[in-house]
Design goal:
With 303 residues, the chain is an all-alpha fold. It is 70% helix and 0% strand.
């Protein structure tokens, strides 16, 4: 179909353009200084990757919106992203947000529809196409991610763990949490100063709201607060607690396999990495991770 041919052409152009970006980044391409500057600032990468995002979410224009939700368009786009990560991942730099936006289009929207054969009509088809992209990021590129994209990576792992279309992907996403743990552990030991000061227990004691509701508000604050450089102690604290809090939430999943995998990963992490945690992080773990998970477990056993 013409739609498939057009998308293939866009994918080829994006791959070729990103190859030039990689060469400019390494200094091996004969390009203008203006282009080199745009690569250094990340503008070039954003311009190259944005058409892929438009192909996924249908923002290229009213005439294209309907076609953007066809399975063949999504498949070509996700395959292109995976090839980019394999060949030019180091050169993405400031455009990682676009990559995570593309991943989120699969997690945030229903299964794409359209003509593409029997396999594409099966539940979880696009999940299985996009998840290898996140796996590649977790295995090869965590050190290249800015702090807000590290947080989005943790969020994506949690969303893949919660999705109901493919149980194997949910379990694998929980296992990928170890890659993030290893990365955060590699940033240790952190300096003793410059971290979060107000303990979670102190915030809860001063709150007039129900403990569960108050913890939910604190967690939402962690997801949205500004993060400094990844070497900052406060940033590392937030990334750790978000990872552990996400595992605790997966520990409340209705599927036994997901609950078991998340709880095992959570407590193995506390056992093996907890010696590096400071007082603020342990206080947050107790009040926002361990106690809510224990309360949920006791409630389920009493039913």
């Amino acid at each position: 179909p013409m739609r498939t041919q057009a998308c293939s052409a866009v994918s080829d152009i994006v791959l070729a353009a990103m190859d030039i970006v990689s060469q400019a980044d390494s200094g091996s391409a004969a390009v203008s200084q203006q282009f080199v500057d745009s690569v250094s600032s990340g503008k070039a990468q954003v311009c190259v990757l944005t058409p892929l995002l438009q192909m996924m979410n249908g923002t290229a224009g009213d005439g294209y919106a309907a076609g953007a939700r066809f399975v063949d368009v999504s498949k070509l786009t996700l395959d292109t992203v995976h090839m980019l990560l394999q060949s030019s991942g180091r050169s993405i730099m400031h455009a990682w947000s676009v990559v995570f936006d593309i991943i989120h289009t699969v997690l945030d929207t229903p299964q794409a529809t359209g003509a593409a054969g029997t396999e594409s009509r099966q539940p979880g088809y696009l999940m299985r196409r996009v998840f290898p992209c996140l796996q590649l990021i977790c295995s090869d590129y965590l050190e290249d991610l800015p702090p807000h994209c590290l947080r989005r990576c943790i969020e994506c792992l949690a969303l893949f763990g919660r999705q109901n279309e493919d149980l194997n992907i949910a379990l694998t996403a929980i296992g990928q949490a170890w890659a993030v743990c290893d990365f955060l552990q590699g940033l240790q030991p952190t300096v003793s100063g410059g971290g979060n000061v107000e303990l979670v227990s102190t915030v809860l004691a001063a709150s007039s709201k129900d403990t569960h509701e108050a913890i939910g508000e604190i967690a939402r604050m962690w997801w949205h607060e500004d993060l400094a450089d990844v070497s900052a102690h406060a940033t590392q604290q937030v990334l750790w607690i978000l990872l552990l809090h996400s595992l605790a939430q997966l520990g409340c999943d209705r599927r036994h396999e997901v609950r078991l995998g998340a709880i095992q990963t959570l407590f193995r992490t506390l056992d093996m990495r907890g010696s590096a945690f400071d007082a603020w992080l342990w206080d947050a773990v107790v009040w926002a991770v361990v106690l809510p998970l224990s309360r949920y477990t006791l409630e389920q056993r009493s039913r």
